[in-house]
Write a structure and sequence with these properties.
alpha/beta; 5-stranded parallel sheet; 25% strand
């Protein structure tokens, strides 16, 4: 890959998984999302749900022996990977920006397989979850089943492969969401609004990740919130979670109000690499462009590391509570003394007031909300100089209240 200034010049290929529980709105949402992006001039590919294609051919799980069922799941996954790869290759050669909408992704299979069989399947085929979940797709959107929060609208009448009752649908909904816990860009779209607004929220969250300005075409309700958390933590109080090691480096930039950073994120010796460029928009809004990197690109770009910043080390814990996806960042040594013991909880939500308070994890000691506070931005936390003696401290996200012209694009949101 060429130097960072050229990363934004390439056409974009964005791989999105649209998943969810039964009767969650995936089919309608996919159609609306496709139309929206085609109207923006993007090429949109829609990868069919592999399980539905195979099951519509007369396969019934109740008729299969355990060995036949296991082998079917293995072949289903291999077929899914090959079908997706076909679309991925087409998108690479397309001259337009491409959105690839996958109707479920490879991790969805783990929701329908016993843990022991899933581990056996991964080991036998050389699969690991960093590659299958984090590196394979840019974003995951989970559409919560109507059986969870909109029960009066739950139905199986219009789906030939669906027969779940409400209780089973709720169970499958949670399992399919839990399968994706740990992906760095995972959004859960619940049933807190009517269905039309639910679909708009789904389209909105995709546009947000791509830094696409939707103007007044969609109601912008979801925002990123950050909370200060104090310890101690007890693992047994958490629901199912995934822990990751995360390393951030800020890079030197040629532009005065531009930030660039690298992120390495992984578990069990497997890593994903992201480059982020952050710059202010002409209308006062900052935009971020994220690019997935190979390990070689990552190592080459480390030569551009900004010596004014410490490397940031974190343990990131990802989990679901009340249909909300949370990331808890626990800062690790070595670090500046200001980061010692620091824990920050982040989530995307459209909830406010008492509804927001009730959605937060009760097992965490949340001290206060710190969204937008410069003292808790990773950019400022990583500065080597004392805040009182540096010209680089940034007070404002968009640069209105910066101390001087040395401050760049403002405090960066952690990623």
């Amino acid at each position: 890959m060429k130097p960072t200034d050229n990363l934004m010049d390439q056409h974009r290929v964005y791989k999105l998984v649209l998943t969810g529980g039964p009767c969650g709105g995936k089919t309608t949402g996919q159609t609306r999302l496709c139309t929206f992006f085609e109207n923006l001039g993007w090429k949109v590919y829609r990868v069919p749900e592999t399980a539905s294609v195979l099951l519509s051919g007369g396969i019934k799980f109740n008729d299969l022996t355990p060995d036949e069922s296991y082998n079917f799941q293995v072949n289903l996954l291999k077929t899914m990977i090959q079908i997706e790869n076909t679309y991925f290759e087409l998108a690479k050669s397309c001259r337009r920006n491409c959105l690839i909408i996958c109707d479920r992704g490879v991790m969805d299979a783990s929701a329908y397989i016993d843990t022991d069989k899933w581990e056996r399947m991964k080991n036998a085929n050389g699969w690991n979850e960093i590659e299958m979940r984090d590196n394979r797709y840019n974003q995951i959107v989970h559409m919560v089943s109507a059986a969870n929060g909109a029960e009066e609208f739950y139905s199986t009448e219009d789906h030939s492969c669906r027969s779940e009752g409400v209780d089973l649908a709720r169970e499958l909904d949670y399992k399919s969401a839990a399968a994706w816990i740990g992906h760095p860009y995972f959004d859960v779209i619940d049933n807190s609004t009517d269905f039309d607004a639910k679909v708009n929220r789904m389209i909105e969250c995709v546009c947000q990740k791509l830094s696409i300005d939707t103007g007044d075409r969609l109601l912008r309700t979801s925002r990123k919130l950050k909370f200060l958390v104090s310890g101690p933590l007890s693992d047994i109080q958490f629901p199912s979670f995934q822990d990751f090691n995360v390393v951030h480096h800020y890079l030197q930039t040629s532009g005065q109000r531009v930030q660039t950073r690298l992120r390495k994120r992984g578990q069990n010796g497997h890593w994903s690499y992201i480059h982020t460029t952050r710059r202010p928009h002409v209308h006062g809004q900052s935009i971020e462009v994220k690019t997935q990197l190979t390990q070689r690109d990552y190592l080459n770009m480390l030569a551009q590391k900004d010596d004014a910043h410490f490397t940031i080390f974190k343990k990131r814990r990802c989990f679901l509570v009340n249909n909300q996806y949370f990331q808890l960042d626990i800062y690790q040594e070595p670090s500046h003394p200001r980061c010692r013991g620091l824990m920050l909880l982040e989530t995307y939500t459209s909830l406010e007031g008492d509804y927001l308070k009730r959605s937060l994890p009760k097992f965490l000691n949340i001290v206060k909300e710190v969204t937008g506070e410069p003292s808790y931005s990773m950019y400022n936390l990583s500065l080597k100089e004392d805040w009182n003696n540096t010209k680089k401290f940034c007070y404002s996200l968009h640069g209105e209240l910066q101390r001087d012209h040395d401050c760049k694009a403002g405090p960066s949101d952690d990623e």
